[in-house]
Amino acid sequence: MRKMKDSGIVWIGEIPSDWMMTKVKFVADFYNGDRGKNYPSGDDLVDDGIVFLTSNNIHSTVLDTNPEITKYITPERYKLLGGAKIKKGDLVFCLRGSIGLCSINESEDEGTVASSLTVLRPKNINNHFLNFILNSKIAEIQTKKFENGSCAANLSAENVGTYIIPYPPLVEQQRIADFLDEKCGEIDSIRSDVQREIEILTDYKKSVITEAVTKGLNSKAKLKDSGIEWIGKIPEGWNVKKLKYVTKIRTEKAHFSPDKDLYIGLENIVSWSNKLIETETEYIAAQYDVCKKGDVLFSKLRPYLAKAVISPKDAFCTGELLNFKFFDGEKKFLWYYLLLEQFVEIVNASTYGAKMPRANADFIINQPIILPPLSEQKAIASYLDEKCSEIDAIIAEKQKQLETLEDYKKSLIFEYVTGKKEVPA
To answer: What is the pTM of this model?
Structure first.
């Protein structure tokens, strides 16, 4: 059994006697995202260009640069930015929003980061080992010291630099990193299985919506041909019209104040769900699209993500959302209709642009919509609210399983990066 000593840090406890303790600032250089006047926005964001990392790219130990979630800026804007220029092997750490998340960059792509992120370039320490430490309870506990109790946090690169961490010999760092790569991979495999179960439940939810919206709640109802191939037969007494004849689109703009106004961006909308989430995204005071409480919002950008929501209050929103301010019927029924998998597929098939595909608003409003009598629309919406809530509850339980696995993963990392458990020979 290896000889241990007190690390001097309560939350770390004992470490092997031949290990040292150090601060992150002594083993990594920091490069922050540019927060100045050259910060990219609007026309600086393009379909294809230089990688511009945000917290959306950081959700596991390895940086996710999938084009579907990655933002890009023009080469001209990139040259103006004085902030971090990422390299392969760098660590990217969230300072705001998804605070404390850290990922290693394994991409060769040129790029930079948002002001909510900082880049760590390891020196005299194994970058994978440091990445595991920053994804462990060691970093989590120290991050919480700087939180101010609100949804934001007073965290800076300087704060992260003060984090106290174990520092084994370099050879042992490599051994631990290799071992954790394997073990964490096994945990991630189990998480993938649970995630697959969530996907199956999500598909079932989609089928329930399709059946209720296109066939109604009376299984014995007489059917007729809708005249629309992807819809097929619908109950007698139902009508089919184009969206533009039963809806009105809101196009007004007003001045947005970051201090008091709600802004709804695509990142705030949960796919296939009438839910909004908070993110660290910053929006400057400017003219933005207006949305009112009860407006039905549908994303024209990457419609395959099925981002639609009924605005819970008066707010501002991205121009990437098509805003239905009026519907000649039950708005919740309209919202469910917009989430029909077949409808989403048709809109998605019409998109243009490779990395940031968009649908044309005119194309969307020229699509047909099924119109049951108003009483049936309300009954269908009420039924789906209840049924989908049941499915969502099961999905939530699966999400808890994912959280449990993540906690186990963090505990495992902690045991090995502090030397309490030794990598088998």
So the answer is: 0.71
Alpha-carbon span 14 to 22, nearest angstrom: 15
d(CA 100, CA 425): 32
Residue of 307, 311, 315 whose CA lies nearest to 258: 315
Please give the C-alpha separations between residue 112 and each of 45, 84, 313, 376, in angstroms, as whole numbers. Answer: 13, 6, 35, 52
Q: Phi and psi at residue 247, in whole multiples of 5°?
A: -135, 165
Per the CB < 8 A criterion, the answer to whether 12 and 138 are in contact is yes
Looking at residue 171, its amino acid is V
The CA angle 181-187-191, to the nearest 5 degrees, is: 130
What pLDDT, on the 0 to 100 scale, is given for residue 415?
Answer: 96
Tokens of 389: 């809530």
Residue type (1 letter), 40: P
CB-CB contact of 269 with 299 (8 Å): yes
Identify the CA nearest to 334 among candidates 274, 251, 399: 274
- Name the DSSP letter for residue 44: G
Q: Are 292 and 298 in contact (CB under 8 A)?
A: no
At residue 151, the pLDDT reads 43
Q: Return the structure tokens found at 247.
A: 């809806």
Question: Across the strands, what pairs with 365?
Answer: none
What's the average model confidence in pLDDT over 325-349?
97
Cβ-contact 173, 125 below 8 angstroms? yes
User: Residue 380 phi/psi, 5° resolution?
Assistant: -65, -45
Q: Residue 148 above 60 pLDDT?
A: no
- Side-chain half-sphere CA neighbours of 259 within 13 A: 0
DSSP one-letter code for 270: P
The angle subtended at Cα 155 by Cα 151 and Cα 158, nearest 5°, is: 175
Please state the rounded mean pLDDT for residues 156-180.
95
Which residues share a beta bridge with 122? 28
User: Coil, strand or helix: which one is 27?
Assistant: coil
Question: What pLDDT does residue 152 have?
Answer: 46
Under a CB-based contact definition with an 8 Å cutoff, are residues 299 and 225 in contact? no
Question: How far apart, in whole angstroms, are the C-alpha atoms of residue 182 and residue 177?
Answer: 9
